[in-house]
Request: fold
Amino acid sequence: MTSHVRTDPPIEDQGLAWIEEDGRDGEIVVSSRVRLARNVQGYSFSSHATADEREALFDKAGSAAAASGVLEDVDVWEVSRLNRRDRTLLLERRLVSKELIDGPGGGPRRGAGLALARTRAFGLMVNEEDHLRLQALRGGFQLAAAWRDVDQLDEEIGARLPYAFHHEFGFLTSCPTNVGTGLRASVFIHLPGLVLTRQIRKVLEGMGQLGVTYRGLYGEGSKIVGNFFQISNQTTLGKTEEDLIDQLEVLVGRVIGYEKQARSVLLREAPNVLEDKVWRAYGLLRHARSLPFEEMMNLLSGVRLGVSLKLLDSPRVDVISRIMIRAQTAHLARSAGRRLDETDADAFRAGYVRRVLTSDDAT
Amino acid sequence: MTSHVRTDPPIEDQGLAWIEEDGRDGEIVVSSRVRLARNVQGYSFSSHATADEREALFDKAGSAAAASGVLEDVDVWEVSRLNRRDRTLLLERRLVSKELIDGPGGGPRRGAGLALARTRAFGLMVNEEDHLRLQALRGGFQLAAAWRDVDQLDEEIGARLPYAFHHEFGFLTSCPTNVGTGLRASVFIHLPGLVLTRQIRKVLEGMGQLGVTYRGLYGEGSKIVGNFFQISNQTTLGKTEEDLIDQLEVLVGRVIGYEKQARSVLLREAPNVLEDKVWRAYGLLRHARSLPFEEMMNLLSGVRLGVSLKLLDSPRVDVISRIMIRAQTAHLARSAGRRLDETDADAFRAGYVRRVLTSDDAT
Reply:
């Protein structure tokens, strides 16, 4: 199998294909992600490795990714060679972690990189907390499919780079919370119904007791905006990967059920309040001349709920997902062709959202 | 001169013609009004009169109005014969006072009435606090024209109904604050610039020291909404009518100057904030599904400012004035053909505003 590799290619639309995927329960689950932490035998853990060791590993990992059949054509970036805006573009697409692009502080470490299938949100980070973080991102509720992707990639990469493995603990990882399977699966899920009916806290607490945790848009420690939650497994040890995925699927399925119930309650008990709320959100997005990101997310949350409940005809949920990615500051700065301070970014954001909604008219 | 009189006619669009008038400084002054308080010799003041005396006076006043050349065709209503919604329609058009339709409490007194030129906001209330309150309402800044109207009507009515007059005090009125000329002139003025630049209090205090007072939308004691103020003379004694009008005109002219200055400052110092504010107001008006009256007035204030400053292309200010009248609850109830509770009224209001703005698209 021949695949084509580009090294440090320009950042175009890589890693956004999940948006178009029509996954299950797409009106509630934005996307599903699985990642596996792997370390390679014979190399020091990233935190202890020298720059030369990291670069050597980066080259190995890039070659392994290039040889992968499942990734097909691959783009490879050494993150330290990207400018700040391009690094942030990758972060805004959730293709790299903040840790990868920030390094121990100030900027990415030499050898920190990303290999990415050219037409999918599927690939691996190199020299993050662990040597390798294999990851697949899918649209809608598709944990099993994302797991199959990553599992295949894991076999292909593992065949070329022998992993550090302990017969008792499983795959060894830099941080003990990842040891074992090294698997983290998560869904990015929109729960406005549970928030509006004030059941969200109870639901999140219940999940916590079942080994499942939640985060905000940009992962660990980030803020919840727009009623979007990242829900993921906390345990990685003592179970098979399939069991972990199954367990999270069941749990998320239950959360989806609660959310659907909450939405019906809202529709039944306060249809007019709900309709007014979603149309006001639409009206502000459609006409504002300045939109801070967080406010935009809150308004998009209202519009997404409205579209899901057929109170609004458009925009489609994939259009909303695209806005959530492309109305982030680095994406706006790329379109503008210059750096944007906060005020500029808010104005460009409003202009972008307005153009998208106007070309996709709901009225 | 023959004029046609209708007694207790259906309420259609009477008294709204001022909206179409293109008065001076119409982007700031919504309307100008002059009224004269008059009492008729040989009748007890309204507060002391019997129902029969009031009805006799009502008949006399109706005949005098019918004979007036300046009013041309006249509609005459005895307010106590109107249902509550129709009385409120007249109030919402500011053709009658709350005192006239409420009487001493519970409802209008027998003999309380209104004579109105069929094609203008011009006529007289009968058996309000005084026997007669001659009034003319004009669009924009047209105090002098409104005064000429009322002055002519005063001559015509006075020729048939001899007024109570004291050689020293002037025209006698029920309340001593009206004695003398019996004149009250006012403008309904939109001052968002002075409010946003926090100069409004200073300006209003300055006016107060010059014998000029301000009120809200529905007159004495009513709340300021949407940055709309009724500014009127407080003194009625010791000056000629022309002097009082001139003085108020000069003063309002100065307020208009301050408001224009404030608007330029806003445009110069914070054009983006201003543009965002007016477009957000437009977006909410255009899309909300429930609009409380006071919120609507505040949003219309933003839109009116935006249109005046050419930040928005539409709606025209006359369309905004029409909304301010027709989106009041009794007007909405008439369109709906039924009583509306507050929730219903808010929904109908939103629907009405949406239709007007959609047919008059600004985007």
